[in-house]
Amino acid sequence: MSSENSSSKVPAIIEGVKGLLVNDKKTPAANDNNDAAAKAGTCSGNEQKILLVDEIDKKEQQAKDLEYQKGKPTEPADNTASQADATGDDAVKDLAVKLEQGETPSVDEAHKVQSEEQNAMGGARPPTGSTSAVAQSAVDKEQNFQKTLHEVEEKLEKDPSSVTNEDAARLHNLERRAHGQTATTKGSEVAEIQSKVAKEQNFEAALHQVEDKLQNDPSTVTKEEATRLASLAQRAHGPTAIAKGSEVAEIQSKITKEQNYQEAAAQMLDHINSAPETITTAEAQHLHRLDARAHGINNIQKDGITAKAQSLAAANERDANTANQSSNQNEKGGAQHVENINQTANTESK
Fold this sequence. Notes:
SMP domain-containing protein; single chain; 76% helix; 4 domains
């Protein structure tokens, strides 16, 4: 017969016996005497009945206590340290203290404590909130953080422009989960990475802006923008970022060529507006060279300042040649006229 069936029949037995003996039961003082007499083996039959009722009362209370303990929920431990005390194992206690101090255990420590707790619980898996469960969670969080940290560091080394704000935010979130801090500590690995990502993004934004201007309207790129781009490149990648042959160095060269052309073109425009007849072939050729360096020989505009300067210079040269020819002819005609006069004078004198 199971303990559950036995305990359920106890109240019925008690009530039956109590009904038979209710009129015979003595006072509390008499019960004490009866108890003593029963122990001495000298109590009467009626006194033995009373003792039986008392014994049944005790059994009834024990049954109620048993039922209460069966239905009572298991209370969770207040903290990992108190659970460690229950196991009585030094390794569990030490790890519990380590966890409470915010330290991350090693994989071996977590596995060892899990084994100790399982042994203490008869091979059962430690429940949620146990020292080993908390330790394993801490280990998992640290491993996730370290894995993402390594991935972002590789991106920064191979292709810094591929690291996004989302990468930096995810890394910070994993660090917070693993180490329990709401803000990244200055000088930490994550802080260094966040700084690198910010510098890289500032440089990339400035680079794209300048490249767009060079492609769509090179004349709008200023010296200040070129200087700022070089500064951001050095912050993001170091001094080699502006070394000869680098991307920034190529862009700076383009900007310099464009600015040289723009300055010469502005001077030529003033010259055209003020004294177009004085524009020389040498001046037009100089502007043509600067235009070709900045934009390519095939990209010189047919109706631009360079073309207009060349046209005016050619016209001025033709006019100058014509004037020279006319002057030479006049000089020759004058000389012939003088010679004719001299010849006439000589003839008359004869």
